[in-house]
Amino acid sequence: MSAEQLKDRITNGLANLRGRPIVSFEFFPPKDEQMEKTLWESIQRLTPLQPRFVSVTYGADGSTRSRTHNIVTRIQSTTSLTAAPHLTCVGAPREEILDIAREYWAHGVRHIVALRGDPPQGSTTYVPHPGGFAYAVDLVQGLKSVANFEISVAGYPEVHPEAPSGVFDLDNLKAKIDAGADRAITQFFFDTSCFLRFRDQCAAAGIKASIVPGILPITRFPQLQRMAKTCGAGVPDWLADRFDGLDQDADTRRLIAAAVAIEQVQQLQREGVDEFHFYTLNRSELTFAICHALGVRPAALAAAG
């Protein structure tokens, strides 16, 4: 076991002993100076919550690769956080992707989120890069050939929109875990029973790795609807009803969003879930509030409580 893995296990063990769920956060590369300022303010705000790791996304077609790299290496070198870059199969041959992995390892990065990736903009069909990794399972195998990375992969409680069936999708997830992935982080969802069924299906399929629910605090409902359509996530009628008429009322939207997410994570917690991954959209306020409700608080506050 590496020193990094030992440190991670000790941290997680202490968290569990005090009944504190384990959390991780996702960020994306900012497009302009103001968005970059917001990103680093959010990282600073969430750092005291001691996440297991923070991930940084790629663009859909690998277009933000250099920006992702710059953010990851800055997090790794200037903060106490563990940075986990996304790597995808899209837009590059095998050796180029493995060179990126080797460079990350040289910078002290030990955790990668390995994904197939989405088709380039303007394309509706995924076509593997000639000479590249065809799918995430191949990427996981390739990363493990470079070094003993800790690897997270994607899971889909409502089935990947391109999968021919739920059985196929589950088999694909098991193949990624068998190839060396350590955990699956799910696509966001709002039907808790759907996640719980998926967790049971994974167990029945012999998947022993952690299935971590991906939680999306809702900042803007129309944006959520577009994202859900793209990734095949369901948006229940009751959720649409809660946000109905609030397009011009940001304050009430935030209150409703916090209430929805806190209700969701507490229900999952009652079902034995003790690890959560938050899609922050580079904002800290809602994620911080939800973590507070979960009992994930800065060390000083937790000690005082």
Write up what this structure looks like.
Helix content is 49%, strand content 14%. The protein is globular and about 50 Å long. The chain has helices spanning 3-17, 33-46, 65-78, 94-106, 136-146, 166-178, 192-204, 221-231, 237-243, 250-270, 285-294, 299-304; strands at residues 22-27, 54-56, 83-88, 111-115, 150-155, 183-188, 210-215, 275-279. Strand 1, helix 2 (33-46) and strand 2 form a beta-alpha-beta unit. It is of the alpha/beta class and 305 residues long. Helix 5 packs parallel to helix 6. The chain has 12 helices and 8 strands. It has one domain (3-304): TIM Barrel. Strands 1-2-3-4-5-6-7-8 form an 8-stranded parallel beta barrel, surrounded by 5 helices. 39% of the residues are buried.
